[in-house]
Specification:
This protein is of the alpha/beta class and about 375 residues long. About 30% of the residues lie in helices and about 20% in strands. The strands form four sheets. A seven-stranded mixed β-sheet has the order 7-8-9-4-10-11-14, sandwiched between helices. Strands 3-2-5-6 form a four-stranded antiparallel β-sheet. Magnesium ion binds next to α1.
Length: about 375
């Protein structure tokens, strides 16, 4: 396989769309110290949860962040909302670096950046009424809307598709999907410009996931709020996000416009993620067959990630160069503006089925082969 011609690319993720991004993250790093030793505990290493992340989110756009468990999605979300402070790097929100801003400096923008959490059960205080939960952020920020907070709470309940008369009820009186709607109403209470939604539907029944995704999409479009939508798989963000970034072990390994990522993925890991999601196929109407790659095995530990390309221990195309040099996130020849890939030996820009399955974990092949081998042994016996 020849190496692709590389074109120069700007830093960030497709920042040609608008002059000043709402949010710009550069070289973002978050390392959590690992303590060990006896009798004196000291720092013996670090979990490299986020390790050099660049991304741009424009006003009103929906940006999807996808990757397997433990790759650093939530940490990224918590850094952007400044629930965590970065180890290194900058987070520029509307032209101001908020990466290391103090609590006091953050106060004016706290209302503009909100977060919706994965678990609608634990993210709502069970002892507070829905009215109190939704008006809480207004109270904390001393905001008195026209007509009063209760009127605003009723409006918000209506926006998220709940009965405005239910503002006196408690969270346990609502279903999972309804509770997540309450979480959305609370996030909307301060008219934010950016919402980080961390796996907002993964704790919900499949049957109601689509309803909540539709609600978020409606909110994003009608209220012009920018979203960073975090999800495990590419199917969930497909209809929601205009641009999508794929994360692996603390880094973005591919980013681009939705269509570019879904129809012309270049990173082997993106290929593997896409082929693991049959629904993507069905929804796109491209026929039931697409490439066949089965991603199995675990992501290596973020305490000691592989050298060079972090995906190399699971990549079927890995070569010596992959261990020696970290592939930069760049625009490859033939790719659209803003579609960046970090791979020395990228895939063809297609999701066509392959002649043979690629199985990324030898243990899985062994397991799958066993029934066939057993049957053969029986026949022979
Ligand atoms: N406070 C913390 N202290 C130490 N390690 C942490 C902390 N928070 C996260 N980590 C570690 O950082 C890595 C990234 O975690 P993170 O929660 O960001 O991943 P994620 O992509 O959101 O995963 P999931 O899909 O399971 O939610 C994991 O290895 C996790 O164990
Ligand atoms: S750089 Fe090498 S190991 Fe990494 S994804 Fe590309 S081919 Fe695979
Ligand atoms: Mg998470």
């Amino acid at each position: 396989m020849t190496e692709d011609l590389v074109l120069p690319a700007g830093r960030g993720t497709g920042d040609a769309v608008a002059p000043e991004p709402l949010l710009q993250v550069s070289g973002l790093v978050k390392h959590f110290p690992v303590k060990g030793g006896f009798p004196i505990r000291r720092t013996v290493g670090a979990v490299q949860a986020v390790d050099g992340l660049d991304l741009v989110v424009h006003a009103g756009e929906s940006f999807g962040l996808v990757g397997e468990s433990g790759c650093g999605k939530s940490t990224t979300g918590r850094l952007i909302t400044r629930l965590l402070e970065p180890t290194h790097g900058t987070i520029t929100y509307r032209g101001r670096d908020i990466g290391h801003a103090t609590r006091r400096q953050l106060a004016p923008i706290r209302s503009e950046i909100q977060m919706i959490f994965q678990d609608p059960y634990s993210s709502l205080n069970p002892r507070q009424t829905v009215g109190k939960i939704i008006s809480g952020p207004m109270e904390i920020n001393g905001i008195e809307p026209e007509g009063g907070r209760e009127k605003r709470v009723r409006e918000l309940l209506e926006i998220v598709g709940l009965n405005p008369e239910h503002f006196n009820r408690f969270p346990h009186e609502f279903s999972g999907g309804q509770r997540q709607r309450i979480g959305v109403a609370r996030a909307l209470a301060l008219e934010p410009k950016l919402i980080v939604a961390d796996e907002p539907v993964s704790a919900l029944d499949v049957s109601i996931q689509a309803q909540v995704v539709n609600l978020l999409q409606q909110v994003q479009r009608e209220l012009g709020i920018a979203f960073v939508f975090i999800a495990h798989d590419l199917a969930v963000v497909r209809h929601f996000s205009q641009r999508v970034a794929v994360m692996y072990l603390g880094k973005i390994i591919e980013v681009g416009d939705r269509d570019s990522i879904y129809t012309r993925p270049r990173h082997p890991y993106t290929h593997a993620l896409l082929s693991a999601v049959p629904e993507v196929n069905l929804v796109s109407g491209e026929g039931p067959q697409r490439e066949r790659i089965r991603l199995a095995g675990d992501v290596p530990s973020p305490i000691s990630p592989p050298s060079g390309c972090r995906f190399r221990t699971r990549c079927w195309k890995a070569q010596d160069k992959c261990a020696a040099e970290e592939p930069p996130l760049i625009r490859l020849s033939g790719n659209r503006d803003g579609h960046l890939t970090a791979c020395h030996f990228p895939e063809e820009p297609t999701t066509e089925p392959r002649d043979e399955d690629i199985v990324l974990d030898p243990a899985l092949t062994a397991l799958e082969d066993r029934p066939a081998a057993d049957a053969e042994a029986e026949r022979e016996g």
